[in-house]
């Protein structure tokens, strides 16, 4: 954990230095130290005293950390700038959190490559750390080592961290093989309205898990059992499929899971389970047959694949800013419907041939997006479980439709409370009408205008607002962007690297 804090403090120092417009050498001179020491500090590779933090704060005229309270992060966006060049897609939040939970299946050392450094991952690392799992960043590339203890200290669980993420629900599957009683807090995450956990309970009951929900906690009790017949999931959800897989992985026998999600994070989890020695048949389909093993004790090394939702976000950034941008490492299989719809809307794109991701399985391409005259899609935009249009990609179509000629209907049937946040685009000049809690009518094209606003409390709508700000001439401010940092690593800096002008600031 100490390493984690050093990295975060290092990033704050780097942000403050860049904001001041200083080089590392200039900061080093002001501190009477070397450029290489500043470099190490900014990368989180050097222990740093409180006195040094105070001196850096003084030199940069910016309080780097305020003890006991880290002020929220905000973005100041100078919009109307074209993007250009190329940008890489990072690994996915959703696979990384599933794999972190899956590491609890293994008594050996798990190494995950190029893990996204995002708040959602940090929360799960905090929870893992609190129950005795040793985690360590190996380098600046995001390679992460996870070593579990012989016994987990579940009573010591960091409930505050656990409560901030929904992903902690995926502790249920692995933990039911390790202990007979435990508790985890109600699942958190984005404020998207009610999100059921019932399908998880129904699926895991086959393994003997009973859960009572009281006082904000799930109290789990395990009387281990073998699923006598195929488990039919009541929803084709991603995390519920993962939970069933995690439980099946250490059930010494064959488990059949029907109505399984075959989405990208589920596939990454299946590939990882195979490395743990668990055979999974039917990967990429809705019936998974898992040949579990009672004990897993292996040193494994796995590289999760790139995030299709981040790829979609970057693509949308290029569209709304009318830019030519190359997005590298796009997991194309998980973006096919989106690309087909955009093709129909008139988007000019060019794709390279396919090449494998580091997991050796997922197919990637580089995608160049060019400025295009878009027309609204004839049919409604609506998500479906994979291989449909990705549920998390729907909000990006609101921003894209706002740049197109004509009116587009967006039907976000999945979440009770997400479509409404997209009406925030109206404050930036869009014409978005909420027809009912799930349907939006977007009239384009839009002449975007700058605005100052709070970040919507939902990841994808928040990024959509940021993209619209990038398109709007003038200076916009987006306040309290924790929710964006939950799912995107260094988004502002990375967009700046292709021509955006986004400044990070905090009130301390
Ligand atoms: C950590 C992680 O991986 N999170 C993803 C995962 O969350 P997760 O798998 O937790 O998603 P939920 O279980 O909350 O499902 C999302 C919503 O879809 C509804 N639903 C889902 C499937 C279905 O067949 N019928 C149905 O109605 C659910 O009731 C819920 O309202 O999947 C969501 C949907 O892809 C994504 O937005 C999240 O980014
Ligand atoms: C809704 C999302 O994630 P989570 O399941 O982490 O809330 C998302 O990634 O858009």
UniProtKB/TrEMBL annotation:
Keywords: Cell cycle, Cell division, Cell shape, Cell wall biogenesis/degradation, Cytoplasm, Peptidoglycan synthesis, Transferase. It is an enzyme of class 2 (transferase). Residues 13-67 form the HTH cro/C1-type domain. It catalyses: phosphoenolpyruvate + UDP-N-acetyl-alpha-D-glucosamine = UDP-N-acetyl-3-O-(1-carboxyvinyl)-alpha-D-glucosamine + phosphate. It is found in: Cytoplasm. Pathway: Cell wall biogenesis; peptidoglycan biosynthesis. Cell wall formation. Adds enolpyruvyl to UDP-N-acetylglucosamine. This is UDP-N-acetylglucosamine 1-carboxyvinyltransferase. It comes from Streptomyces pathocidini.
């Amino acid at each position: 954990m100490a390493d984690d804090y050093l990295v975060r403090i290092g990033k704050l120092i780097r942000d403050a230095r860049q904001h001041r417009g200083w080089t590392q050498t200039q900061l080093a001179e002001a501190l009477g130290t070397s450029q290489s020491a500043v470099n190490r500090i900014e990368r989180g590779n050097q222990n740093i005293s409180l006195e040094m933090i105070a001196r850096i704060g003084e030199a940069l005229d910016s309080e780097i950390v305020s003890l006991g309270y880290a002020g929220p992060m905000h973005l100041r966006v100078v919009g109307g700038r074209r993007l250009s060049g190329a940008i890489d897609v990072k690994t996915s939040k959703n696979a990384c959190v599933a794999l972190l939970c899956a590491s609890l299946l293994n008594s050996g050392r798990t190494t995950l490559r190029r893990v996204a450094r995002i708040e959602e991952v940090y929360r799960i690392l905090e929870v893992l750390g609190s129950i005795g799992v040793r985690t360590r960043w190996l380098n600046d590339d995001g390679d992460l080592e996870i070593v579990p203890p012989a016994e987990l200290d579940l009573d010591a669980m960091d409930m505050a961290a656990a409560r901030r993420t929904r992903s902690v629900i995926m502790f249920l599957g692995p933990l039911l093989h390790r202990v007979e009683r435990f508790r985890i807090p109600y699942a958190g995450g984005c404020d998207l309205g009610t999100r059921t956990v019932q399908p998880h309970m129904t699926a895991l009951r086959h393994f003997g898990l009973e859960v009572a929900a009281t006082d904000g906690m799930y109290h789990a009790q395990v009387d281990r059992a073998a699923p006598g017949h195929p488990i039919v999931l009541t929803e084709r959800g991603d995390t519920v499929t993962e939970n069933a897989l995690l439980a099946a992985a250490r059930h010494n026998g064959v488990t059949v899971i029907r109505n399984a999600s075959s989405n990208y994070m589920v596939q990454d989890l299946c590939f990882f389970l195979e490395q743990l020695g668990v055979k999974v048949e039917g990967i990429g389909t809705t019936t998974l047959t898992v040949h579990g093993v009672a004990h897993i004790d292996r040193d494994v090394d796995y590289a999760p694949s790139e995030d299709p939702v981040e790829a979609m976000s970057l693509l949308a950034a290029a569209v709304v800013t009318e830019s030519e941008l190359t997005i590298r490492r796009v997991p194309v299989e998980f973006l096919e419907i989106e690309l087909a719809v955009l093709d129909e809307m008139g988007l000019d794109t060019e794709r390279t041939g396919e090449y494998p991701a580091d997991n050796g399985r997922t197919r990637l391409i580089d995608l160049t997006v060019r400025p295009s005259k878009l027309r609204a899609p004839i049919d409604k935009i609506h998500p479906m479980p994979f291989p449909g249009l990705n549920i998390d990609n729907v909000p990006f179509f609101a921003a894209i439709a706002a740049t197109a000629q004509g009116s587009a209907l967006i039907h976000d049937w999945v979440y009770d409370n997400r479509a409404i946040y997209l009406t925030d685009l109206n404050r930036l000049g869009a014409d978005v009408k909420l027809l009912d809690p799930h349907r939006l009518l977007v009239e384009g094209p839009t002449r975007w205008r700058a605005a100052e606003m709070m970040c919507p409390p939902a990841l994808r709508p928040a990024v959509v607002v940021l993209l619209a700000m990038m398109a709007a001439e003038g200076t916009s401010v987006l306040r309290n962007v924790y929710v964006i940092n939950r799912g995107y690593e260094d988004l502002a800096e990375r967009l700046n690297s292709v021509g955006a002008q986004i400044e990070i600031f905090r009130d301390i």
